[in-house]
User: What shape does this take?
Amino acid sequence: MCGIVGYVGHRDAPSFLLEGLHRLEYRGYDSAGMATLEDGVFSLRKKTGRVLELGGLLKTDPLKGTMGSGHTRWATHGQVTDINCHPHLGGDGEVVLAHNGVIENYTKLKAKLVALGYKFITETDTEVVAHLLAHHYRDQKKLTPENGPKENATLALEHTILMLKGTYGLAIMFRDLPETLFVARQGSPLVIGVGDKEFFVASDQTPFRGYTNDVVYLSDREIAIIEPSGFEIIHRDTGVTAPSITTLQNVSEDSDLGDYPHYMLKEIFEQPISIENALRGRLDEDEATAVFGGLNLTAQQLRRIDRIVLTACGTSWHAALVGEYLLEEFARIPTEVEYASELRYRNPPMSDTTMVFAITQSGETADTLAAMRECKRKGHPTLAICNTVGSTIAREADGGIYLHAGPEIGVASTKAFTSQVTVLIELALFLGRMRHLSYPAGRRLIRQLKDMPNKVRQTLECHDKVKQIAEKYAGFNNFLYLGRLYNFPVALEGALKLKEISYVHAEGYPAAEMKHGPIALVDEKTPSVFVVPQGGIYPKIISNLEEIKARGGPVIAIACHGDEQIAKLADDVIFVPEVEEYMQPIVTSVPLQLLSYHIALLRGCNVDRPRNLAKSVTVE
Ligand code: AGP
Assistant: This one.
């Protein structure tokens, strides 16, 4: 997704902006740009490719100034070219702005502006906003010549955003206002970092580390006018709004790479700790249940719930599938998993005793946010299971549970998945113990949960074995991932990991489904990854595996230590510790994360920033 940074204060703006763009790289982008205002003239530098290349351009052709904006672009409208990079100038250089989001009515607005004589040099929807703002600013100066430039600029901005349909996060500068940064938000996140006579702006708080821990999350329909002396927030409907400043806790160096070659590998190996964080303070052994501080629902309300809907996208949707099995097994509550992009438009029948959970790492996924808002609109208690404190979904949900997994920088989600599953096990325990789950059963679940960080530590010992297997299979171009029950979502997740970072085609299926068609795909060029730990249906899945072998398909098995039978059947085996079936997704997903990581490396792919992808998909 696009990333925006902005600065106004006493520092050299370009250095903060460049560092901020580097910290936003993980969001995914294809080009970067920056603008500063100096002596009444905007200067811009833009470059397709990595932020590093923009940095190189700035070395040879530096920018100066104590106010500026920067942008990493993930192209939605217009080719990936230098000219299409943000920020974009409006009018004859009266304004410059950077934009994250999609303006849905930009063609109509563009036609009007062309008719008014505005010249467009890019193919972007953003340039339309820039010219529209310049046009309204010119009009406003004629309408209210008695106003100062700040008042007219504010009125022009308010008028402009009323005409926009779609989503935007905007960072705006006016040539007449050398010390005033404007921001506006509708659907694309923006955060203000509060410093001492200086202010920072970004799409999320990662660029603020080392500058400030005090942040203000802008809400939809809000604009902010920011100057070194202070800032003001104006809500479109309610007017001037008192800012609520959040002080971020332990803004650690978490998101630094450390000794790892890639964030993805770092985050895979962080999982014992991230799972500990998901457990910390939530296991009540005396009552044999889980404890949550932020559900914001009474026991009475929770007991009335007779149906749960879990909505998410991508990897979070796979975690939701595991959640469905967990909630139905331990809490006996009928649970439905919905793709958020479907739920937001599908309007399924849901009674007022249906509770909705939005599951999301970033807390900014547009489809998940829209689905959650749709459910809230209909009066359902709507909670979030989320990793990013202060994110839009976390703030708009009626309550929720944080993962506490720390920043997940790699585009491919890893530790968030295992933390989401951990939290869903805790939730199933919590709801089950409010209904009929026995004390001993609760104690047993808690004992097993407490052992999970260790089990994952043991699982990570398979790393060298996975590397060897990756070397053997990196040249294959089609894979099947197969699992059953709790490991069916793991098969889907393993396939997604491989697809998204190595660009290799992979399909996940319930293993027994193969004979209903997909087995026609099996030949010696199509390896099957079987997730086949011990469990009640182990013999069944072994026969599914034998069906594949009988057709010459190579098989990689994820199996339990001590399983002697599997080694005779599979071509390659990755052993993992034996755990209860409902805990297996936490353990069996780890080798699949490592397998996709190493195959992608061997295929020369950028594992942290795979092509075409963004860490947080804030557009539809
Ligand atoms: C997972 O590896 C992908 N990067 C992607 O599917 C992701 O899970 C999805 O976009 C949902 O993101 P969220 O959890 O931040 O809402």
